[in-house]
Amino acid sequence: MALSKNTIKYVKSLHQKKFRQKYNNFIVEGDKIVRELLSQTAFEIEGLYALPEWLIENEKNIHLPSTQIHSCSPTDLGRISTLKTPNQVLLIVHIPTESHSTDKINTSLSLYLDDIRDPGNMGTIIRIADWFGISQVFYSSTSVEWTNPKVIQSTMGSFLRVAIQEIELASLHDQSPALPIYGAVLAGSSIHDLSGSHTGIIVIGNESRGISPDNLALLSHRITIPKAPSGGAESLNAAVATGIICASLTR
């Protein structure tokens, strides 16, 4: 059955941040991520839009009311998709209420993303957090929001296992004033001088501007990834730097 013009208009509106905020919903696309979402209970699903053959193949795994299941033609799926080459299935998912565990912050490592604007970087960093068992990622209001479709795609499903929240670093510091805050800067102590497992917040700044002045003032530890004597690059990609730092602080 063809999707109505109103349905197509609604789903397409979720491509934009202002409508994701208005309706409190976001889009997830792709066979693997959708099947993973259908098997969990943390995220509430509003609607499933899929090709008829995908619905038949995955019938046993779909436990949604029939009113939430929409069979789409390839043309209609292309109209509502955020991808240049649409996948077989698309979900509309409710954005969960943002919250964090102060106890978990005080006893483990968390990430704070300061003005990370590239969706690919944001998604990859969330994926890195998932890899290293870091269960909380926070980000500034100037960063791209985690429900951006490109961020969701880049996480490869890791957003399902990592709690992500927009909050100011000062607020986290006020809640846990004794907690170490590590900041990735060009001139700091080498990460190779850090030993053992750590607790605290790792701050990753904007690739071109670094950590904002207000957040720099909150750092208790300024750390850097030392460059080889023959190294010529001026800086590292934010996600690459995050991976190296996480590997060092969680070893």
Secondary structure layout plus pairing:
Blueprint: H1 5-13, H2 17-23, E1 25-29, H3 31-38, E2 45-50, H4 52-57, E3 69-71, H5 74-80, E4 89-94, H6 102-107, E5 109-113, H7 119-131, E6 136-139, H8 149-155, E7 163-166, H9 169-175, E8 181-190, E9 200-204, H10 213-216, E10 221-224, H11 238-249
Parallel strand pairs: 2-3, 5-6, 5-9, 6-7, 8-9, 8-10
Antiparallel strand pairs: 1-4, 2-4
Helix pairs in contact: 7-8, 7-11
Descriptive report:
By secondary structure, this protein is α/β, with parallel strands linked by helices. It folds into two domains: 90 residues, 60s Ribosomal Protein L30, Chain: A (2-Layer Sandwich); 148 residues, 3-Layer(aba) Sandwich (Alpha/beta knot). It is 34% helix and 21% strand. A six-stranded parallel β-sheet has the order 7-6-5-9-8-10. A four-stranded mixed β-sheet has the order 1-4-2-3. β2, α4 and β3 form a beta-alpha-beta unit. α7 runs parallel beside α8 and α7 packs parallel to α11. The longest helix has 13 residues. The chain is elongated and about 60 Å long. The N and C termini lie far apart (53 Å). The mean pLDDT is 93.
